[in-house]
Amino acid sequence: MPIQDTLASSQTFFRTLAAQAAAFLPNLLAAILILAIGFFLARWLASLVSRAFGATGHTDETVRGPLIAIVRYLVIVLTLLVALTQLGVQMTSLLAVLGAAGLAIGLALQGTLTNIAAGIMLLWLRPFRVGDYIETQTFAGSVREIGLFVCHLETFDGLFVFAPNSTLWNVWMRNHSRAPSRLLAWSITLPREVDLAGARAALTQAWSREDEGRSQLAEPEAFLDQLTADAQVIVFRGRVQEGSTTRAQRWTAQTIRETLVERLGAAAEPRAIQRIVPGDADPSRYLGSGDAPVAGRPARQEGDTAPSS
């Protein structure tokens, strides 16, 4: 009798299990189908949004990547919720579990959440855009993509840089592409016997002509910076439009040498030509009187009209 009772109980258990499996199997297949359709729909919508952004031509490249990622993740989350509902999971219990799990995951992934917050601030304040060349304490490169978690950069020699957003938000940064123009300066050491006025005129006049083969400097200016017993140091500077800085840095020193020798003779051969960057505390870095700060007057913002001197 005990053996017969055990067999009967086992048969009842397996019949019940088979009946429950038969009832649950359609829901499981439906949930799997929903997941497959949802993931396919997420990829398709992300691709559609990407093509739409590319077709309009009016969307900033900086926000394109994050918006596409938000669309994809939103569809995936909705798909998971619908699939779990299909399996019989109650939404109230599911939200409670998700809340507890979210708290635990948030504590475990504080760095990831920090990157998301930093990514949102980067997209909101936009200290740089896609295509800008930026420099931080550890690396420098051109921005190729700005995401919710990381930014992709490319160094000048073609290396790929995977930078978490928090490493870009919490440090100082130089954006070499933000300003429409940049001040470049060169220190030129000449023999003492070279005519100072002639050297200054030769330099400023050479860059006043419209010559496409010459590195273009706006507002060229040359002045005497130092004078020693056997040499004189001239600072030559001007503003270069964004996009022409590389050409100016490569060819201006050679053009300075050729101009001085051509205009003033072999005696004007420079002893040294060195590119310099005036310090923030050096008042000579201001090209005009309207650029220099004055006590009691706010600094002139970009786009303001300079006061007449």
UniProtKB/TrEMBL annotation:
Keywords: Cell inner membrane, Cell membrane, Ion channel, Ion transport, Membrane, Transmembrane, Transmembrane helix, Transport. Residues 276-309 are annotated as: Disordered. Residues 70-110 form the Mechanosensitive ion channel transmembrane helices 2/3 domain. GO terms for molecular function: mechanosensitive monoatomic ion channel activity. Gene3D superfamilies: 1.10.287.1260, 2.30.30.60. It holds the Pfam family MS_channel_1st. One of its GO terms (cellular component) is plasma membrane. The keyword 4Fe-4S does not apply. The chain crosses the membrane at residues 24-46, 67-89, 95-125. It is a multi-pass membrane protein. Residues 112-178 form the Mechanosensitive ion channel MscS domain. It is found in: Cell inner membrane; Cell membrane. Its main location: membrane. Belongs to the MscS (TC 1.A.23) family. Homoheptamer. Mechanosensitive channel that participates in the regulation of osmotic pressure changes within the cell, opening in response to stretch forces in the membrane lipid bilayer, without the need for other proteins. Contributes to normal resistance to hypoosmotic shock. Forms an ion channel of 1.0 nanosiemens conductance with a slight preference for anions. This is Small-conductance mechanosensitive channel. It comes from Aureimonas jatrophae.
